[in-house]
Amino acid sequence: MGIINVLFSDKVTRRVKYQAFMNIVCAVYMWTMTLLVTHVSFFHIVPDCYEADNRVVIHRLAIWYIFTGTLGNYITCVFTKTDAKTSERLEKQIKSHGRYCLACEMQVPRRSHHCYLCESCIVKRDHHCFFMGVCIGRENHLYFIFFTLFMGIGTFYGLLLNAKYMHRLYGTQFHGPQTFVKIFFSLFASLLTGQLPSYRYMGLFILMYVSLAGTMISFGFFAWQMLVVLNGQTTYEAKFGVTRYSKGSYLGNLREVFNSRSLVSLLLPMWDLATNTNYCRINSQSE
Questions:
Q1: Which sequence ranges are marked TM in the entry (predicted)?
Q2: How many whole angstroms separate alpha carbon 238 and alpha carbon 228?
Q3: Which terminus of the chain is more exposed, N or C, with fewer CB under 10 A?
C-alpha cells in the first residue's frame, strides 16, 4: 500500500510523512465511528424504539443495505487501480497528447497528475482522499461518488434514529437545526454546575454530533463531486479554472462518469470488484 510505504520511507519529507500518518488517522476514525453508529442503531436503538413491531425488520434491513453500500463502494474505490502505469494499455490512443512525468519516468495521459502519497501519476486525478488513503481518479471516481452518497444517507439515518431514541429516553424535543446548539450548551452548562449526565446520555450525545458532522461532510462532498462532474472538470481543474475538457453539455459531462450500467454499481456494491468490471473504464473506451 502506497501510504504505508511513504510513512516508513527515507526519501520523502516530514510533511509528506505527516500527511500519510493523517491518512491512517482519518480512515481509522471514520470507520470506528461508522461501526459504532451502525452497531448502536442496529442492536439497541431500533429494537428499543419499535420493540416487537414489524418495523424492526424493515429498519434493520435498511441499515444493513446502507452499511453494505458504504463498505462495498469504499473497498471498490480503494482497490481499483487508478495510476497511469496500469492504465497504459487503455490510454494507448492518447499517449501522444500526454506529457512526461519526471517522478514516474514515463509518458502519462492528459489530465494525469502525480501524487507523492500514492507514489504514482493518477489518470484524471480529482484529489487525494485522506479517508480512503488513495487518489480519486478516472477509474474509481464513480465509486467515490456512490460512497459519499451512501455515507451521507447512512449518517443522516443514524442521526434521525438517535434523535428518536433521545426523545424516547429523555424527552428531548427536536425543533430544527437550532436544537443541536441548544443541546450542546445545555450539556455544557450542566457540566459546569457539576450535574453529570449518565454514560448512556453522553454516548448518544457524542454519536448524535458525529452523525451530524458525517451527514454534512458526506453530502458536501457528494454535492461538490456532482457539480464538477456536471461541469466536465475534476477538483484540480476547478481550482485552476480549467474548462477545456467539458463536452459542452451537462448530459455529455455526466456520461463521462455515469451511464446505464452505473445502476448496477449502485444497487450491487462490490459487483464491479468481484467481476473485475469497471464502468468508468468502459465509458472511456467507448469514446
A1: 20-42, 62-80, 142-160, 204-224
A2: 7
A3: C
